[in-house]
Write a structure and sequence with these properties.
Layout (H helix, E strand, L loop, with lengths): L3 E2 L12 H14 L7 H4 L2 H18 L7 H28 L1 H4 L4 H29 L7 H54 L2 H17 L1 H18 L5 E3 H18 L4 E6 L3 H4 L3 E3 L2 H14 L6 E10 L2 E9 L8 H7 L3 H11 L4 E6 L3 E9 L1 E2 L3
Parallel strand pairs: 3-5
Antiparallel strand pairs: 1-9, 2-4, 5-6, 6-8, 7-8
């Protein structure tokens, strides 16, 4: 049997529910207070000192050609370690302390301040280290060498600072984009939940159930089963499901409406063969919500029997679903008013999110029927 999948079928994933999305958005919002993280919270002080220790050892090894004995190597290594520690640790604490002030400034302005703090700290500590080494006789004083060493270390510090700032800025923008994506996803989920459980449908169903409990308890039990299945699916989250599952949900909904309408509802299904429909997919409750909106608007217009025709075809890697609802002969609403209620924007957005921009839902109203077409790609990716 062929394996049919949508262009973007997520076989190993289900959408996270709203509470998880809320937690993730809150965490991202906390991280996005400022483009730079709290430096002294990235690592503990002893971890920073350990990193500086190995960095100083690496620099000392690279520069070993300039030393004549082991003692001079140890002196240079210790001087580098102490100088770098004195330059970075206090500077990091100062930058973290100034975060409340920096939050109100532009990114470029903050970057300049951070660059100034770190380069100044580097220049001062290198100069102090050299002066101590000169006084101790460990360094031969030469003004040109003295200045060149300070300038060289300051330039290196500036380079590392700029690289770190660019990294933080890139990470900040990526997190911001991720946060925006989660917020859109959460908003879409909330819209879907609002669209799924129409209050009038809920209360009308409850009223019907209460009236049947006393008069027809067996029928009330059947109605309760349909309601339970439909509402359970409503809270599973927006996700792709098999087409057979979606058809079953539609049948649950139509069975509920049929009971409410005293069996004045006739539904005619035209479906593909089972072996074709078996692997077809669709976003959950999309077809059901479209049928519900069409049917609800017709119910308001008449007390006559309502006829619905639903035809599903799959041709050339594309699914087309046509839903036709016959309008009553004596309509209580004019077509202009009815058109205002035939808006399937939320359902269309969900389809496009999963199946691409070519997915669409179009609805038209004629003299004798409401005609809605759902169309989306379904690609054969079988081997």
């Amino acid at each position: 049997m062929k394996s049919w999948r949508s262009y973007r079928y997520k076989t190993s994933q289900e959408n996270k529910n709203s509470s998880i999305a809320n937690d993730e958005v809150a965490l991202l919002a906390e991280r996005l207070e400022f483009f730079m993280p709290k430096l002294m919270e990235m690592m503990k002080p002893w971890q920073w000192l350990l990193a500086i220790f190995f960095w100083s050892l690496f620099v000392a090894i690279v520069d070993r050609h300039s030393v004549v004995n082991e003692m001079q190597f140890i002196i240079k290594f210790m001087a580098r370690f102490i100088q770098t520690s004195l330059a970075l640790i206090p500077s990091f604490y100062l930058i973290d302390y100034l975060r409340p002030v920096f939050k109100g400034l532009r990114v470029t302005t903050v970057s300049m301040y951070v660059l100034l703090i770190l380069t100044t700290a580097t220049a001062v500590t290198v100069a102090l280290a050299l002066l101590i080494m000169i006084n101790a006789g460990w360094f031969n004083y030469n003004l040109a060498d003295f200045i060149s060493i300070i300038v060289f270390n300051t330039v290196i510090a500036a380079g590392f600072t700029i690289a770190a700032l660019l990294f933080f800025l890139r990470r900040y923008r990526e997190l911001n984009a991720l946060k925006h994506s989660f917020e859109q996803k959460l908003s879409a989920q909330n819209d879907v939940l609002k669209a799924r459980l129409a209050p009038h449908f809920f209360f009308n169903t409850i009223n019907t159930l209460m009236s049947l409990i006393e008069s027809e308890p067996q029928r009330a039990a059947v109605l309760l089963q349909h309601v339970s299945a439909l509402f359970r699916a409503s809270f599973n989250g927006a996700r792709e499901i098999s087409f057979e599952e979606e058809i079953a949900l539609c049948e649950h909904y139509l069975a509920i409406e049929s009971i409410r309408l005293a069996d004045k509802l006739v539904v005619n299904w035209q479906l593909p063969k089972e072996d074709v429909m078996y692997d077809m997919v669709i976003t959950a409750l999309t077809l059901q919500s479209v049928i519900e909106k069409m049917l609800v608007n017709v119910i308001r217009m008449t007390t006559e029997t309502i006829y619905i025709d639903i035809k599903v075809t799959w041709l050339q890697h594309r699914v087309d679903i046509t839903i036709s609802v016959q309008l009553p002969k004596k309509a209580l609403l004019i077509n202009h008013d009815l058109r205002q209620h035939m808006d399937f924007m939320i359902q269309a957005q969900r389809l496009r999110a999963y199946f691409g921009q070519s997915a669409d839902i179009q609805s038209s109203i004629m003299n004798k029927q409401i005609l809605t077409n759902i169309s989306y790609p379904l690609q054969d990716v079988s081997l």
